[in-house]
């Protein structure tokens, strides 16, 4: 491998060394000062600069369009690459057939007195034709492979499409844009075939550096070699400049990062925000979160009012939607000022509901309501960033090209606050989460825990009425998760926020949640207070989350003596159905069901005991693990089912429990909950009578601002 790499390097380097050995280095200044050399060099610099500028101006939008998905985009991508693959002379002939005096467009241009062929303009056109594809291909590949979390977060913070493009998208793909520009510039500088075929070789008009080198090759070899050295040196500098970390170099020089919301402003003593900077005029009743009525100061005034001392801004958040393509048909209500945990297995629709709440997805067949304000519903759609709903996802979406301070000030600036007030607001939020010492760091310099805290501060800096947390702690280590729990609990209590918390961690539910909702297959299968769901789960997912054993099977027995047949001749008996339960409690014999057994309700014996417990199950130990001061013993029973029992270390020693040992597990029927299994349903065909869906909402026509609607304004286009 090393030998092959060395041969590859020699194939690139040796020709350059050979060229250098033939150059008359001592005579280089004199050779380059000849009139023909100076004319060729000056013409190449002018045409290359012009063609590169045109390539950037035209190629960047083209790359943005080709990076999207639309009918025929594959053909468009092939056409964009085609000039890179055709011989340059063929490119020149194609240009001549189009823009020449007798060409497709050239005849009309000549009639208007505009001649392009065999002019300096022809050189620029030829260079653009062969070089712009290098920029387009490089940038388009980067755009297609980029992570779009930061752009989605920017939208929820209030940025419109153009601000997202200028402040987030292009800065994040700036390295690819720089590489593509360098490749286009280098290709323009070295262009030969298309130029000589379309523009000719007239000194001072169309004879660029490559043409001069070719013509001088036989009549004046030293001059041609000198010009070749200049061309190679220029290419080396151009490509080499793209390998430098310009953001770090500019940062050390004190130049603001691309996309920065402004330079540092005075912030008062110790960099803390002063209370006067956080307050604003009182907000008119019923106008919470409105884009701004005449005379009310607009979003900036509303934001200041919501930040007034002691303001509690939590409002009830209702989300309902029917999205058959995502398998989601659910309705969720989060109480005002309460933390609601949203739980469920992967793919159950939790993130979809979060995106609907934030305005990133349309709540088709449903609605989104915050307090008394309809955010999404029949004839109404409030775009992301104007909803007073902040979103914090598993990926923090930190803008890596900005400082931490600019990250947090981004939302307030998008909502109309001045730079000084936005930065003071940002510092106050950073201080509230204990991250004000990170204010001047770049986004890419943060650890996972630091990024999570900054993302929380950035979300709260917009003064939301509801905060949607889509597993923001999932990627953090245990200490960082614990710190984030404390921060979320404290800030939610201080601000009186309505919070939806998506999580798979039972500790998050126990430590933070007031209420809990469980989703399975896109539908709500369980809801209630968090304490009630933790102590008595009624769904398979919740049971597994809290550690209960779930034994699926077929329902049998009666209302007073329900049971589940789990195979292998085993029957699990459970507690009677409560008297106040409607009908038969959903327990229909012969239908799928499950038995939920808490691990601390299982007793282990060497021999089958005699007594009142109805469930005596023989099994074999397949594993043991520590759980604090206790030991969890796993048994294999029946047709391969796993049963977990929590016992003390003393019990393990007394019974001499070890892997492979046969034991009897005893469970009182009163400790076992028998529940029906909910089969997965097809989300399609949800419509009921009169065009209503299963949630009772009527269909509606697209609102102009709705994602996918017929007409979208600046804020709803992306």
TrEMBL record:
Short name of any one Pfam family annotated for the protein: ABC_tran
Residues in ABC transporter domain copies: 312-546
Transmembrane segment boundaries: 42-66, 78-99, 111-137, 225-246
Composition bias, Basic and acidic residues: 691-718
Segments for region (Disordered): 258-307, 678-718
Family the UniProt entry places it in: Belongs to the binding-protein-dependent transport system permease family.
Domain ABC transmembrane type-1: 41-242
Domain of life: Bacteria
Record's GO cellular component terms: plasma membrane
Biased composition, class Low complexity, residue ranges: 276-291
Membrane protein topology class: Multi-pass membrane protein
Keyword annotations: ATP-binding, Membrane, Molybdenum, Nucleotide-binding, Transmembrane, Transmembrane helix, Transport
GO molecular function: ATP binding; ATP hydrolysis activity
Gene Ontology biological process terms from the UniProt entry: molybdate ion transport; transmembrane transport
Protein name listed in UniProt: ATP-binding cassette domain-containing protein
Organism: Actinomyces bowdenii
Mop domain segment(s): 610-676
Protein's cellular compartments: Cell membrane; Membrane
